[in-house]
C-alpha cells in the first residue's frame, strides 16, 4: 500500500522548471510582510511559501533556507512514514484495536517542518494530533498509541524527549508552555518552547491568557497554530473575522502566516521564530495555513458539514506530492529511492500493527496508585469497592460453569 499522496488518483501538473536562485543559508529575523494586516478587499493575506503546490522552488524576501539533498529526502521520508503511521492507526481503530484516533492527514508538512526546526533542548507542548512532531522528538510510536488503546494515561516520560504528554483539554497547553518558557528565562537557559494548538483552540481564553503573559514577560515561546480550516464542524468563517496570525499584534508580538503544506517554508519560519525567542526577543505566533483531509477524529463524519469540492481543492496542495515532484525535477531522488521508501513504509506499518496488538492489558488497580503521596482513606475505600466489583465477574463465571 502506498500512502505518499492523498490525491494519487487525481491527475496533476508537475513543474520541470529549474530551481530559483540558490537560497541563503540560515534564516532572517521575523520581520515579514505577512505580519501586516491584509489590504482592504484582499481575498487572503500573504503567506510565506518556498515550494509551490506544483513543486517549484521559489524565494521569499524574509525567509530562506538551504538544505542538502539528504536533508530534503529526510523531510520527505518523515512525512511518508508519518502518513503511514496515521493510516495504520485509523485502520486499527476501525478494527476495534484503538478507542479513538485523531488523524493528521494533510498536516504532515506543518508538523514535520516545525518539529525538525526544534533543538534537542527545546521543549514542546502538543495538543492531541501532533503525531508528526512526536516522531521528530523521538517518541516511540508504540508509546504514543498506548493512550488511545487505553493501556496507560500518557505513554512516555515528557522529560525524556522534552515533549509533553498529549493535552486533551483544548487550549490549556498555551498556558503550560508560557509558564515553562518563563521558567526557562529565569534559569538563564537559551532554549525555546513551542505550544501547538488548532484554529478552534484559538477561541479559548487560555490561549489568549498565554499570549498576554508571554508578551508581558517576554517569554521565549513560539505559538504554533495549525489552522486546518475546521474546528470539528465549525469553519473559519464562523470562528473569527480576521486572519489568526494578526491576533498577535494586539498582544505586542509578531505573527506570520505560512503555507502549512510547504515543509520548507514551515521549517524556515519556525527555525527563525525559535532563534528569535532564544535571542531574548520574546514570543511569536505562527499560523500554518493547512487542511485536515480526514475526520476530526474517528468518531466524526466530515461529509455532514463540508463539501467534496473543498477537499479536492486541497488535495491539489498535497504536501508530500509537491516535495516528491521537486525532488524528481531536481534530480535529488530517483524511482529506486521512492520504491525503497514504500517498502520501508509498509514494513513500518506492519510493525505498528503488531506492536498495538501485543500490548498487555493494564493493571486494573493501577489507577488508584500515585494519587496521594501519603495515602487517602477515601481512595482506599474506592480501591476496595472496585476490587470487589471486578471479583464479582469472576464469581459469576464460576457460577455459570457449575
UniProtKB/TrEMBL annotation:
CDD domains: TPP_E1_PDC_ADC_BCADC (cd02000). The keyword Calcium does not apply. One of its GO terms (molecular function) is oxidoreductase activity, acting on the aldehyde or oxo group of donors, disulfide as acceptor. The keyword Oxidoreductase applies. Its cofactor is thiamine diphosphate. GO terms for biological process: branched-chain amino acid catabolic process. Residues 17-43 have a biased composition (Low complexity). Pfam families: E1_dh (PF00676). Keywords: Oxidoreductase, Pyruvate, Thiamine pyrophosphate. InterPro entries: Alpha-ketoacid_DH_E1_comp, DH_E1, PdhA/BkdA, THDP-binding. Residues 77-359 form the Dehydrogenase E1 component domain. Residues 1-44 are annotated as: Disordered. This is Pyruvate dehydrogenase E1 component alpha subunit. It comes from Streptomyces indicus.
